[in-house]
Specification:
The structure holds 2 protein chains of 2 kinds. Chain A is of the alpha/beta class. Helices cover 48% and strands 17% of the residues of chain A. Chain A contains 33 helices and 25 strands. Chain B has 15 helices and 5 strands. A 4-stranded mixed sheet of chain B has the order 2-1-3-4, with helices on both faces. The chains are: A alpha/beta, B alpha/beta. Chains A and B meet through α12, α13, α21, β24 and α25 of A and α1, α2, α3, α6 and β4 of B. Chain B: It is found in: Cell membrane.
Chain lengths: 913, 370
């Protein structure tokens, strides 16, 4: 095959592990794993969830840091960053979870295009590969559909296409078929089969929880509790254990302590007839917009019946369950529990129903016992009975010994039992279980079903359960198959198999699905790629960088709310703040305590009252009055004129006027102080002139004050140019931070871990669209200041724009810096607001010049980019400055971006920890 | 609605926060170091102002004037030439430039009323006014003293005894410190409730609550009391330990009264956080909404610049925001020593805005869950 590396020796293993260990906190995920995986084969990792399969695969893909031991993949040490960089173009990794590494708002073709660019393919090459892959997987009709709107099976096919776009030599698939309907599962494996026929040198490593799939693989690794139980071909494993199928073989391979006492589940038949109807759905329909998630679904479930619900993810199972629990109100049709229509507002209904959702029903921050007790309390059980009830549930569901552990530390099987215990704590009559056993090992699954059988047959609990496992479906009294919002068939397992004349339930369902879907488009063979594999290495590739830029701008474009908020929002803010921050002090209230009551004293008061700064309030009656009115803040200034004031002035005797200023807001007080002093001085000068005539002029001078750059001393002229820098700091920084941390939280960051993209390419690529957005913002804000606020712009617009470009480079980089070490969006958001809003508004000269600040605030202010851009902005707006004046500003701003970005590159990890 | 549910769900929220070390660290930082640095950095309204002087007179009098500009109000004046003046102001190096003309001393003594020019960078509004007032005073005092030896005093001896109440030295950091506590309260309470709700939504964990016999109001109230309590404790700590002890700001009034008001304020802001979260679909949208709300709340509530000076429109709009009332109330209680008899209107206003916010949020939240 074309991409086969020259150094691959067919006999050499594709990967070799020696003493590999991995811990998450206290929990050991992998324990001394030593293993050789043969090349050119289909290798399966089997075992339940949480036994270390995913950890092992992510280590092999280089997505996770090796903690202990040594791993060689494709002939080199995976602990060596250079080797990883060299071989990552030859590995493809598809992580667990439906479409977890896909971008949900991007279309099928755009997702593929993104990966193609990451691996350095040119435009023509990308188009050719995308067309070929889509044709081969039968996805061509859906190339423009957003990934979020694909069914589970199609998402996985798309994930596979993305993985195959660069012709990997090693394909790593982590549970690719979990949550996918039986038909899509079959199609998926057929597809893999065909690809392997076309490219026989390719090695495939797959993790799966479905034993019937594993039977088709070449070579298996059975794992449990972070250790390898056995390796070998399926036939060898069967032979070694003497078991009939792999499920049984796996149970036999498990250490005695875990499988002892295991017996196959058998649920006794129900007593016939005479059952009341527990759940009744008639013509249930749920529409979201014009899309019908559930379309005219009807069924009746009798009390004590176990009713199974099958179908792919996104076919409407969960929506139906939500309507039955009153979580969703149906668009049409009715749902009844015990004959009474479900009212979402009726708390009593919730008390009769226990619900276990597929994603979550436990609080990870509470221990097992605390979880049980919290739920018991929420269901309003008698406080005295709660402890007892919790203990009984712990005993019944075999949770002794882990009662004080946190759920996250428990194996999935036990966690699921705990979820069931939680759902059962209040003794409900109906249990609704949404995929309770996905990812649980066969032993635990059988235990789980044994409990369900007991609940149904002994306690008469009605159970409505959805599952992907056929052997579980066979245990149900009746089964419904759902597809695209409709029920295809609803009957007992035997009746369904008989109707389709099928040997297994799986075959019967596939037949029903094929009827419903019609003919599959005939997949085209995967044509051989001409040798054009672009050089993927190099420390910097524009194409890879732009692939992230394109991704980010596409996502931004698909989120018009975010885009509008970013643009309109900053305009609104500018408007509000530009008008709102006002330094002019006017209309302050003052009152006088005039103990003289003469023309002279009234003249003094009138002088103050006549100014535009003060308005006179009713006169004061005494000190108590003054105290009271100053305390409640209605007076900013109180004046006391002593008795005999006029007489003393006329005589030239010493006399003093008292003035009290409200100092609670010092900024305002300072201004008041200045006004009062000024008016006092004016009054005295006037009096002196009246008394002495021109002789008083001796020693006089005029202080001519020129308020430069802003002759009318208007706040808006001073503030708008300083608000632009503030807004260009906050919004871009928050957007870039979230763009990275979001990928970390939602999982698509794995694409950065396992593809050849470097840290600098990743960060720069993410940054560019936001720089462009910020520049657009800059243009809008400047236009607003000039045209709406009428702030005169006197300098050079291009010189200002250049400063802005350098500045937004720095502010977007600041967001990236925060994102490089933050993991949760909430904390990252908070941190970004902290490190931008306070320095930007307080330390950068927005109100107080940096030269007047003290301590750490001043030190921050001196180097903070906003300080420099405020100087540039005020210079360009009010001071008529241009290129030749901005030397220092340019230097300071230009230095900021590389420094901040460099730090981010150093702090960002290229592997999960 | 049952109190027990609200209590138990709230305890769960607290346990969750306890397991998020990054968030805890940020909370501690926001209420201690951040406030401390911010108010330590805050200048007196005129402090270390940059002034340059062009002395074209080089007389005794001009020498006296130059040496009269001293810290703390002004930095040491830079002696420059007329030609340097414009460039230095353009670069933002000087806020004030005083130009003493030739023969100033002679003209003053001769009663020729000479002009002395003061250039002010009026884009620096905070200092422009107060600073020029000080310059005027300083020059007048020096000239008067200089002239005093040469003539009999003709000015009426009317003194002005100016006293600033509640903050005699007009130290900006007093009010600044309290104001940063208020900012931190707003910021944190909105983020803690709002962003946490978005996270639960993005991870699909909100839904689980709904299958239990718990009402939307109970879920909301549990978030409000638990996160409100965290912020309340943090702000109590900030007021007593950081503001009173570390920053040595004397508090005239009753801290418990302030804390009671803060509790009401938190009722409003945490509800606001939930309200914003229900409007936004994703975290980036929430972040933008947050900015859109947080910035005006901080800038226009009267904490940064006096409320009286804002346009009527903005005053009217801002009277709907809890922050405005809380800022007025804090000034009254903490500095003027006002009691409940004085600040009850603000208490009522906080209760009203909080109630309105809660009602709006609850309505949205129900829709958001359904």
């Amino acid at each position: 095959m074309t991409a086969a590396a020259p150094d691959s020796d067919p006999a050499a293993p594709v990967a070799r592990l020696e003493g590999v260990g991995l811990r998450y906190g206290q929990t050991a995920a992998l324990d001394e794993v030593t293993l050789q995986l043969p090349a050119g084969r289909m290798v399966g990792l089997i075992g339940p969830d949480g036994v270390g399969k995913s950890s092992l695969l992510s280590l092999l893909a280089g997505a996770r840091v090796i903690q202990q031991g040594r791993i060689e993949v494709l002939g080199g040490d995976m602990g060596d960053a250079r080797h990883r960089a060299r071989i990552c173009p030859r590995i493809a990794y598809m992580p667990q979870g439906l479409g977890r590494n896909l971008y949900q708002t991007l279309s099928v073709a755009e997702n593929l295009d993104f990966f193609g660019r990451l691996f350095g393919h040119g435009p023509a090459e990308r188009t050719r590969r995308i067309d070929a892959l889509l044709a081969a997987t039968g996805m061509s009709p859906f190339r423009d559909r957003p990934a979020a709107k694909l069914s589970g099976g199609m998402k996985q096919k798309l994930g596979l296409c993305c993985a195959l776009i660069h012709d990997p030599d090693l394909l790593i698939l982590d549970e690719p078929t979990t949550g996918v309907d039986p038909l899509s599962r079959r199609q998926f494996w057929d597809l893999i089969e065909r690809i392997r026929r076309d490219r026989p040198a390719m090695s495939v490593i797959v993790a799966t929880a479905y034993m019937e799939e594993a039977a088709r693989f070449d070579w298996l690794v059975a794992m449990d509790g972070g250790r390898v139980l056995a390796t070998g071909s399926p036939a060898e494993l069967l032979e070694r254990t003497g078991a009939e199928d792999l499920d049984a073989a796996f149970i036999a391979l498990m250490p005695d302590s875990e499988s002892r006492g295991h017996r196959a589940v058998a649920i006794p038949p129900r007593a016939p007839d005479g059952h009341e109807i527990a759940i009744e759905a008639s013509h249930l329909t749920m529409r979201f917009g014009d899309f019908a998630a559930v379309d005219d679904v009807s069924f009746r479930i009798e009390k004590g019946e176990i009713f199974g619900f099958l179908g792919s993810n996104g076919c409407g199972k969960t929506t139906t369950m939500k309507m039955l629990t009153g979580l969703l109100e149906p668009s049409e049709g009715t749902a009844r529990l015990f004959g009474a229509e479900i009212d979402p507002r009726d708390m009593e209904v919730r008390r009769r129903v226990g619900f276990m959702s597929q994603s979550f029903s436990l609080y990870s921050e509470l221990t097992v016992r605390q979880n049980l007790e919290l739920h018991a309390r929420l269901f309003g059980m008698e406080p005295a009975a709660i402890r007892d009830r919790a203990t009984r549930m712990i005993d019944r569901f075999g949770l002794q010994g882990v009662a004080d552990d946190l759920p996250e530390a428990l194996p999935l099987g036990i966690r699921q039992r705990l979820s069931l215990a939680v759902a059962m704590i209040h003794g409900p009559e109906i249990l609704i279980l949404d995929e309770p056993t996905s990812g649980v090992d066969p032993v635990a699954r059988d235990d789980f079903w044994a409990i369900l059988g007991e609940l149904s047959r002994q306690d008469g609990v009605t159970i409505f359960v959805s599952t992907h496992f056929m052997n579980e479906a066979e245990l149900c009294d009746r089964i419904s198959l759902m597809h695209a919002g409709r029920v295809l068939v609803s009957d007992t397992a035997e009746a369904i198999m008989r109707a389709k004349d099928a040997a297994t339930l799986d075959d019967a369902f596939v037949a029903y699905l094929q009827d419903a879907i019609g003919d599959e488009p005939v997949p085209a063979p995967l044509t051989d790629a001409p040798e054009t594999a672009a050089p993927a290495g190099g420390w910097f590739s524009l194409r890879r960088m732009f692939s992230y830029s394109r991704l980010e701008s596409l996502q931004l474009r698909r989120d018009p709310i975010r885009l509008t908020l970013a643009l309109i929002g900053s305009l609104i803010l500018m408007f509000v703040i530009g008008y709102g921050i006002n330094m002019d002090v006017e209309d302050l209230s003052f009152a006088a305590l005039d103990r003289d009551q003469t023309t002279t004293s009234r003249d003094y008061v009138l002088d103050i009252a006549g100014s535009r700064y003060f308005t006179e309030a009713p006169p004061l009656t005494g000190y108590d009055d003054m105290d009271a009115r100053m305390r409640d803040g209605t007076l900013s200034l109180a004046i006391e004129i002593p008795p005999g004031f006029a007489r003393d002035v006329a005589r030239g005797a010493e006399v003093e006027i008292g003035a009290w200023i409200d100092g609670a807001n010092p900024t305002r007080a300072e201004t008041v102080l200045g006004y009062v002093q000024g008016m006092h001085g004016d009054w005295i000068a006037r009096k002196a002139r009246e008394l002495h005539g021109d002789a008083a002029l001796r020693g006089d001078f005029d202080l001519v004050t020129r308020f430069r750059y802003n002759p009318d001393v208007k706040s808006i002229v001073a503030m708008s140019p300083a608000v632009i820098p503030l807004l260009l700091l906050l919004i871009p920084a928050v957007l870039t931070t979230l763009s990275v941390v979001r990928e970390k939280e939602l999982g698509s960051i794995v694409n950065f871990y396992v593809t050849p993209v470097t840290r600098l390419e990743f960060l720069l690529g993410k940054q560019l669209p936001y720089v462009a957005l910020a520049m657009l913002n800059f243009a809008l804000l400047t236009a607003l200041a000039i045209f709406a606020f009428r702030v005169p712009f006197t300098g050079s617009l291009t010189a200002f724009a250049l400063a802005a470009l350098l500045y937004v480079g720095a502010t977007t980089a600041m967001g990236l810096l925060v994102s490089s070490f933050m993991r949760s969006q909430v904390a990252a958001l908070f941190a970004t607001v902290l490190v931008t809003m306070i320095p930007g508004a307080q330390y950068s000269g927005l109100l107080d010049p940096v030269s007047s600040l003290q301590g750490a605030g001043r030190a921050i202010g001196e180097i903070y980019p906003t300080t420099w851009f405020i100087i540039a902005s005020r210079g360009a707006f009010s001071k008529g400055l241009g290129f030749q004046d901005f030397g220092t500003v340019y230097l300071a701003l230009a230095a900021a971006t590389p420094v901040i970005l460099g730090l981010s590159v150093l702090l960002l990890r290229k592997q999960a920890k | 609605m049952r109190l027990r549910n609200i209590w138990h769900l709230g305890v769960k929220e607290l346990r969750g926060l306890w397991r998020d070390p990054a968030m805890l660290l940020l909370i501690v930082y926001a209420f201690s170091l951040s406030i401390y640095t911010e108010s330590k950095a805050m200048p007196e309204s005129l402090s270390n102002a940059a002034i340059a002087i062009v002395d074209e007179d080089r007389s005794m009098l001009s020498g006296r004037i130059v040496s009269a500009f001293t810290p703390p109000y002004f930095g040491a004046p830079r002696m420059i030439t007329t030609s340097q003046m414009d460039r230095r102001m353009d670069e933002g190096l000087d806020t004030f430039a005083l130009d003493i003309p030739p023969d100033f001393e002679r003209d003053v003594l001769a009663g020729r009323n000479p002009a002395i020019q003061l250039n002010v960078d009026a884009t620096r509004m905070t200092q422009a006014f107060t600073g020029s007032g000080y310059v005027q005073q300083i020059v007048t005092a020096e000239v008067a003293e200089f002239v005093a030896g040469h003539r009999e005093d003709a000015t009426p001896p009317v003194g002005l005894a100016l006293r600033a109440r509640y903050n005699p030295a007009l130290e900006a950091s007093w009010f600044g410190a309290v104001n940063s506590v208020i900012d931190a309260i707003t910021m944190l309470s909105i983020i803690l409730t709002g962003a946490a709700l978005i996270r639960e939504k993005e991870h699909g964990t909100v839904e689980h609550l709904l299958v239990m016999p718990v009402s939307a109001a109970e879920i909301m109230l549990s978030k409000i009391w638990s996160m409100g309590l965290v912020v309340l404790l943090a702000s109590g700590f900030a007021i007593t330990v950081v503001v009173q002890m570390a920053l040595q700001v004397p508090i005239a009034g009753s801290v418990p009264l302030f804390v009671a008001a803060a509790a009401l304020m938190l009722f409003a802001t945490t509800s606001m956080g939930i309200f914003l979260a229900t409007l936004a679909g994703t975290m980036p949208q929430f972040a933008l909404l947050l900015m859109l709300v947080l910035l005006p709340l901080q800038v226009l509530s009267g904490g940064m610049t006096p409320r009286e000076s804002m346009p009527e429109m903005i005053q009217a709009i801002m009277s709907l925001a809890p922050n405005t009332h809380f800022v007025i109330l804090s000034q009254g209680v903490l500095f003027r020593g006002a009691g409940l008899d004085v600040v009850w209107p603000q208490f009522l206003a906080l209760l009203a805005t909080g109630g309105a916010m809660f009602w709006l949020a609850l309505r949205q939240f129900r829709r958001f869950l359904g």
